[in-house]
Amino acid sequence: MNDSILDLVGNTPLVKAKRVFNKPGVDLYFKLEGQNPGGSVKDRAAYNMIKSALERGDINNSTKLIEATSGNTGIALAMIAGIFGLDIELVMPENSTVERVQTMKAYGAKVILTSADDGIEGSRDFAEDKMKSGDYFMLNQFGNNDNWQAHYKTTGPEIWNDTERKVTHFVSSMGTTGTIMGTSTFLKEQNPDIQIVGVQPTDDSRIPGIRKWPQAYLPKIFNPEKVDRILEVDEKEAIEMSRRLAEEEGIFAGMSSGGATAAAVRLCEELESGLVVSIVCDRGDRYLSSDLFQ
Description:
Number of helices: 9
Strand order of the largest sheet: 1-2-10-7-8-9
Structural class: alpha/beta
Low-confidence stretches: none
Number of strands: 10
Radius of gyration: 18 Å
Strand content: 15-25%
Mean pLDDT: 95
């Protein structure tokens, strides 16, 4: 038995690919982050950011939080803020799926929608301007070390232990870059030869959850020295692989997970031997109103 839903954050399963990739000598495993209670990898960062801020005294029960999000972080923050009795406003582009908006509201958050044309950058600008009024505290997932440290403390050790120290490559989509920064830091401390592979969209692709940031918006927590290689995926690849994951592996996930998997499969095809772990960052049910699975 668990005392709190927060006890269920992390310790997500690893599942071996059977059909989207199958090659003797090379094993591809998916880390199923949709098994977190809030449905995504972002539960880890949200929990660590809020818990650490409370412990340091940066925030308290009278603090009003505000954060820009493309979706999954907002859902995680809404859930965890509610558990701690905190008020939170979440700012996101108006073209975000209705499932995401409704889920945040269900957890008790206030949601503000900004122009779709301005993207997540516009949401970030809006939240930062509101914070300057002095009435809000921003956790700032893009520049908060508690983001990547969540993965240093949990995701990295889980992968290391669950693969019995045999992991050779780690593949992750890059958004805030917290997942890849923290996991890379831990895994490289255990074995510097482990290859860390980041996934970005091609210039003409829009893949929710994966970004190639303009220099002015590059996450402050990102350190390029912690990524050995970056693979680019296009929108069509990401959509096709999301559908294949559901149909062939029984793994129902969003487009960023499809993009990461497409890159991981491409990587695996190059290898003669290895154990590759790829992050499946969320669940597909929050994309049903989009055309992802149509």
